[in-house]
Amino acid sequence: MSHPLLAGKKGIIFGALDSQSIAWKTAEAVAAAGGSFVLTNAPVALRMGTINELAEKTNAKVIAADATSLEDLENLVDQAQEILGGQLDFVLHSIGMSVNVRKGRHYTDLNYDWLAKGWDVSAVSFHKLLQTLYKKDAMAPWGSIVALSYIAAQRTFPNYNDMAENKAYLESIARSFGYFFGKEKKVRVNTISQSPTLTTAGKGVAGLDGFLNYAERMSPLGNATAAECADYTVSLFSDYTKKVTLQNLYHDGGFSNVGVSQEIIDSLPSDE
Ligand code: NAI
Question: Does 5 reside within a domain?
């Protein structure tokens, strides 16, 4: 899909690790829609990943930033404005990590140092980013900021572990900071609650395959892919959604409003 919806718009995209990343697909879609941007990721991810390939393809500069470091964020926002020539129109926060999930620690036996680290990376980093953009007056009026979430913020999914609380916190930050960004700067702040997706972060969740299958059969339109999420994000960065803010927007093929699907019922053994 490519319409010049973002012609002349500029921004920052966090979180493109490899070609499966939601942020990678978003960078491609934003470039196809005429937007220009700076790509960023944590220094360690830049060493491991293939971001330079994406940068070349989308004509973007890459700036390293650990999203938990205010110093890195300040430097990133200054440099991005210098490179792109002024205030920003869009920012994507596509960052998530739980040490407890990575190390296979069960939810009933959490390590709290790991919990604090995951919370900082996955949730507080969004506040740090918003605060940096706000204080530096780095967003242009009618700009748009999007972060990625998951429905475990509202409902229980046993293997999602402490990421459930991180997502609930992330969504709350979008509403709380979105109020001030709207009032003072006319800037939108939203989260997209995306279907389960096969990415590096997604694969960290135990049993993702079975769960993808289940979600696919529960959703009337089927699971939303990373590329479809990218298109949705382009619409939220565009001028066609100027009054959408403080929302958690489900992009999940309808999953969030289905109690049970006939396919799931039919797949269960009957008592008769
Ligand atoms: P991914 O693994 O490709 O992206 C996660 C990114 O976070 C990576 O690029 C990683 O380097 C970055 N990151 C980790 N620590 C960081 C730090 N300290 N500073 C800066 N960046 C850091 O996986 P995916 O799935 O594309 O994840 C993107 C977002 O989408 C995350 O917020 C994730 O929770 C969310 N999401 C993913 C779903 C899935 O099933 N894959 C479903 C719903 C939401």
Answer: no
